[in-house]
Request: fold
Amino acid sequence: MRITIKDVAKKANVSTATVSLVINKNRRISRETRRRVQKTIDELGYQPSRTARDLVSRKSGNVGFILTEDHFLKTEPFYTQIFLGAEFEARQHPYYVLLSMIPADYSEHDMLPRFVLENSVDGIIIAGKVPGGLIRKLRKYSTPIVYVDYYPDEGDHAAVLIDNLNGGILAVQHLVDCGHSKIAFICGDIEHPSIRDRFLGYKTVLDKNGIQFSDEHVVITDKVICQESGYDSVKKLLKNNTKFTAVFACNDAMAIGAVQCLKDNALRIPEDVSIIGFDDIQMDVMVDPPITTIQVPKVDMGSEAMKLISEILGRKVQNTRKILMPVSLVERQSTCKV
Amino acid sequence: MRITIKDVAKKANVSTATVSLVINKNRRISRETRRRVQKTIDELGYQPSRTARDLVSRKSGNVGFILTEDHFLKTEPFYTQIFLGAEFEARQHPYYVLLSMIPADYSEHDMLPRFVLENSVDGIIIAGKVPGGLIRKLRKYSTPIVYVDYYPDEGDHAAVLIDNLNGGILAVQHLVDCGHSKIAFICGDIEHPSIRDRFLGYKTVLDKNGIQFSDEHVVITDKVICQESGYDSVKKLLKNNTKFTAVFACNDAMAIGAVQCLKDNALRIPEDVSIIGFDDIQMDVMVDPPITTIQVPKVDMGSEAMKLISEILGRKVQNTRKILMPVSLVERQSTCKV
DNA sequence: CTGAAAGCGCTAACAT
DNA sequence: ATGTTAGCGCTTTCAG
Reply:
């Protein structure tokens, strides 16, 4: 870096302290000098050195963004959208974001991201479910953490979450409004807080509408959530001869798999079976029929997470606020009145 | 950051300079003191401050990674894999990587990534095609740049590129080996260096095998490269009544679209038409039939780019080396002997 | 309202 | 082989 605060000071006939105060918009500088200093800053094209600043303020100026490799490499850009939101928001704050992928099967023997070992982040955003071992190791550092779209069971944390419960309610209520009462629920990892809440929404609506909940309507797969597991789940429903006229899939990937299976069994969608998913992924509109779903504001979640960590770092207090992001129903062609 | 080099120095009864030398593995320290210093470093859990280091060495310790938003958010994790490779490789180098997305329609009025404006990166990796305006503005900063999977026409740059020519040759030769001679080529943006070279490979093989090149066998779409454009390209071929028994699609997305169109026209793959793509994306094995393709080492490309920029920064000379990444044929079920 | 000066944590001459 | 010391570029008391 070439030109420094000294150059500016000299040229503007003030001390470096004054220049510093001007840069930092301190108000106890006379309008006149401020103008003059600002002018020479512009003339010289002066850029304060982040490194020097960080050194004296004892901060790194970085926020770490951690997620598992498989989440990052997912075909559907879910977490990448969250990251994008965070990165965009960071531009409004004095932070850069350092992205680090960890293995999905992270064990406590594995290394932490280098930026935490080297104390190079002031705060951390963790997106999606990560192994418990990682979280435990992270505790030893006192770096504030904000979780996005996941949040560990133990402890109380700051987090930006999808309003999964309401999403589940919206989805199933839509089905009920369409006249369905035999509604299947297919999902993966029921331990996951998000899935759990969507399931809860399902049950809530049944209950509210006086529809009897039945175990045979729910298929829980312990495999990875994907199209294939959606396919298999519906296959199981069919094989069991379970009667249903609609299915609520815990996410769109499974919904798409479900559609496929139904079609393969000569069932028409939505005439014979209505299907609703969750997430509003890009592929929803590329399949036939386009999938009705619950939209979640991915980019906004990223920016909210960034805002939250920035606020925590600014106030220097760890708060445990939880932000519930609103979801909404997106009606497309995979659902209809019975 | 808590404990500093001074603490270590005091406890080990040496000067801070000595500690510094030990940290930096300088050899002119006696084995004995080195051991002692290292021991107290471990005991104290001392971590050198990057910020302080960077300040004195006048570097930021960061490498910027720039790509367009749409590349980052692509359904197929192509550039994310490149990024992943770069990030992993960075762990072996004294750099963090800062990721920044720019709009696909970036104009010279738009801002540069903040990290370049603020001089917070020592070097830059640019992945994929980016708008010329960006590149021109970047020139004003003297930050070394390494390009990955793209490289601007004007000027001579360091770059990590796919061996597209050889890939094209491999692909088309495979088709020829299968007995095909009426081979269509469908592609997008022929201005793109990668596409151009793949096309060149196509022509090279025809030539070498004494097959007459014919304009009617090539369909160039100016739309975005995607399944849909693949579909449309084949549709055009069919409408024109062009005879062909095989198609080389410039990438897998188009290949998949092509398959779809052919199927919709009651043609069997590979019995009636063989199809080969390029890239080896995840979806290749999820469609029916699985797509034969040219595999490109995405993760390796990222790490090579990181190695290259690291070397440039280390030697403090901008070199313009180009690294051509090897590709290979992956035979699956979309191609067969005539 | 502005300046002088100390110091953030580290490296790199230069001494010893 | 190791210690002394002068900064790197900035912020921040503390004086004036």
